[in-house]
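Troubleshooting entry. Yesterday's outputs looked truncated, so today I'm pasting the complete records for two proteins to confirm everything comes through intact. If either block looks cut off, that's the bug. Protein one:
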Amino acid sequence: MAYLPKISIITIVYNNVKDIEHTIQSVCSQTYPHIEYIIIDGLSTDGTVDLIKQNLHNITTFVSEKDSGIYDAMNKGLRLATGEYVLFLNSGDALYDVNTIENVVNKGHQADIIYGETVLIDEKRNEIGLRRHAAPKHFDWKSFRYGMNICHQAFYVKRKIAVPYDENYRLSADIDWCIRCAKNANTAVNINEIVARYLVGGLSQKRHFESLKERYKIFKKHYGTLANLFNHGIIALRLLSYRIKNGKTRE
């Protein structure tokens, strides 16, 4: 492995003692040698901080302080990152296996954005299946116009093109962030394998309608009003087709 960039992995957590250790262990068990691991805690009170402190020998930077929301915390992590690439892996989510980062580096060809597929898991860590939106074979900033087809946890970005999260959004700033990063990218590579385990039931799912309204505003900003209306018609038809075919929906 000739090219060994430092990968900054940033985990955001608040009062999630039951899930945080799964995330920490997935990072600490990686075969790849150059990982900077940053954990930003929102001043948890449920034992999360004590559990993290038990793993400080595997953590590069740990901050526990009050924040104004998840995207404020993500921006703190981004400011602290020193790696060539950044990845946001929130509490409860996990890298797919011990070779994930090594595979991302080997197959990513030093692209500005490197991405892959995501498998969904439930609270018992059982696999549910792949996301409904498959990662596109080729990707640019327009690729999200029909929905977020790359999971945030499967999206590796060169830090030099990464922008701060827009904290005016409360639930879907990750979509806006991915699009704005992609606008700065010259190259993107799909490594064509699963790279992340995504724990279903996050904040945006719990406040689903509000999240959808925010997503609509984001897509309108980037793609325009008429195009956004047309694209959402396509999204609705695809979702209806999926439901008829499968009898259920997935993220």
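Protein two, checking that the full record survives here as well:
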Amino acid sequence: MLRYGRPTVGFLLIAIFAACGAARAAVDDNGPLPSPVPELSQADEPPAAAGDGQPGYPYLVQPERPRDLTLANFFSAGWDDQWAKQERPTGTPNLALLRVQTNFMEREFRANYYAENNVASPTTRNLTDFDALIAWSFNRRLMLEITGAYQWTDPRTGLGENGGTPGLVGRVQLVDTESSSCSLNLKAVAPNQELGVSQTTLSYGLAGFEDLAYWFGFKRVGLYYSFLFDSFAGPGAAGAKRSDVGYDITLAKTITGPETPLLGHLTLIVENYAQTDLDGSHGGRTLVTVTPGVRFNLGKAEGIQLGKDNWIMFGTDIPVSDYKPWNALYRLTYIKNF
């Protein structure tokens, strides 16, 4: 089995795509689409749905995109712009996924459930977590998010324990162009005293998205990347880590259109996530997982919106490194966009 003792490869790939995306945004904010978009006269009618059952995305009348946001206009653009959902002429959606950090402004309610099966612990057999959040974007640059999480433990003997903790997330949009997106994410999570966690978690990192239709002509394929540093403040057990880093590279392929009945914007996801302890008694240890998953909404049927803004997402974390803290981790998410 391959060993993943260092985060070098993950950091290198993330840095490459982040640099390429920033360079593309700086050089060509509104680059041409992979396929030319025909201009329709007032007498023209948009063609019917494409042959694969998808809406004819290149022919859909797109609202005028707001001005691009880049690092060059960070202080002068976006702060006074009203938040709005963004659509791309390529039909590639930029989505909030299972593990990779979200890279765009959003207004949503999100609830996550996950269950760790057969935890590698002499005292705990299984662990269950439920968390929820409300995110609100004030404009195109700034978003705040309130989170809450609650965990239950299933011990190997005796009675289980449970406890909850609140958190706060801030997101700042650094880049938002037709092909690329990048944000700075900040997070603080209070200690979970009921479960014996006495440290406050402070996190910061970058998250990004690239529409691969612009890079390679891949139809409705998005590449996502993120890295997040965690710092643990406060008293901890002997040998407890004080910092770690998580990094993720994800590919997502959208198969159906946004209004397909029952399976709107059906998207297949493969997330490649790793987390490395930077210090403590296990400093240098890395957990690597692969998470196949799927995301969709209920779409539209005969002119009735069944649930275009209600999303279901699920997947399974499979550990592929030598270090395996559990056999498998099952995830289920519900998202309501405002």
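Both blocks look complete. Sanity check on protein two: The chain has one domain: 8-27+50-337.
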